[in-house]
Amino acid sequence: xxxxxxxxxxxxxxxxxxxxxxxxxxxxxxxxxxxxxxxxxxxxxxxxxxxxxxxxxxxxxxxxxxxxxxxxxxxxxxxxxxxxxxxxxxxxxxxxxxxxxxxxxxxxxxxxxxxxxxxxxxxxxxxxxxxxxxxxxxxxxxxxxxxxxxxxxxxxxxxxxxxxxxxxxxxxxxxxxxxxxxxxxxxxxxxxxxxxxxxxxxxxxxxxxxxxxxxxxxxxxxxxxxxxxxxxxxxxxxxxxxxxxxxxxxxxxxxxxxxxxxxxxxxxxx
Length: 270
What we know:
Largest sheet: 5 strands, mixed, barrel
Order of helices and strands: HEEEEEEHEHEH
Low-confidence stretches: none
Mean pLDDT: 90
Shape: elongated
Oligomer: single chain
């Protein structure tokens, strides 16, 4: 009855179906785990943004790698901006997706160590080799509040660290790179400034990271699992249709010769 399933065509179709089912299930779990990571990250961001600010020295030190648990923690740093070693970070977008640069300024602490402060976004110069018109940093001693961030790397950010850039222009915000450029001791990571507000609202402070949306990963996971359930159903429907078509063809072949499609004689009764 179902011996046609042993045909080459049906063996291949069955093998493809058997491969698709676990692949689709795995893709569903992949999207589900991405959903879980997004939910966990949103919770981490919300908790760290709501935490009481602490002095930056409590969470980082020279050469320190900021752990994920401390990302976005509000910290404070008191010192004096060193605008002579200020740089701009190329190819950064504003909150409304305009391409420009971030202003990265060293803040010299009372003990002589430095913490790098991302003061925010400004427009780039008219050509890529010119240094833009950077709004001046506050003079004298200032207390900066900001979100603690980990050093940027090409592997983590996907941003290529280009060589041969114009003076005082960089691609990545990296404390080790800045320590080498300045010849000073720099704390690991950097601050995204949230206060005080800059004069004239420029540079534009970087807004809080999104921690409300969760994306469509869960919907994608459900879709993949529905697809995996649909594969055996589709296989069964095709097999039943093939069986029915074969039975109909066999029935037509077994009918007496000349009877199929022959009209009944005139006046004949059932």
